[in-house]
Amino acid sequence: MTLDYMGVSVSSISFTPDRNCILAGVMGGMVRLMDKSSGKLLASYKGHQNTEYKLDCRVLQSIEHVATGSEDGFVYVYSLLDSHIVAKLEHPSKVIHSLTAHPKKERFITAAGQMIYLWVANDDTEILGE
């Protein structure tokens, strides 16, 4: 077993699709990407709100983006490499607590309250039926 101290309460943890890194969502509105072998911090993502609830975060299948729920009514999508916000997607719910990525496509699902939402790109012709 290996231990890595995060400094604040961890609310979400997952592997990247290639299994080389660990993504950890922590209270205070921060997501951290760490090397699985060394524990070295590779990147931090901030801008979303997370002060009260457990919120999921995931690296999307392309390994180019990180998506996270928030307590301000938006889903945040960050660039994995330079940590800037590439999309702030308005959500029908105020708190987006659940989020998971599709294992093979650049899509994700969120859940809030009693509803589940599928998020796809505007040019995703498979879902749009074009």
TrEMBL record:
Top-rank taxon, per record: Eukaryota
InterPro entries: WD40/YVTN_repeat-like_dom_sf (IPR015943), WD40_repeat_dom_sf (IPR036322), WD40_rpt (IPR001680), WD_repeat_MORG1 (IPR051980)
SMART domains: WD40
Compartment(s) of residence: Cytoplasm
Keywords: Cytoplasm
GO terms for cellular component: catalytic step 2 spliceosome; cytoplasm
UniProt similarity note: Belongs to the WD repeat MORG1 family.
Protein name per UniProt: WD repeat domain-containing protein 83
Species: Caenorhabditis brenneri (Nematode worm)
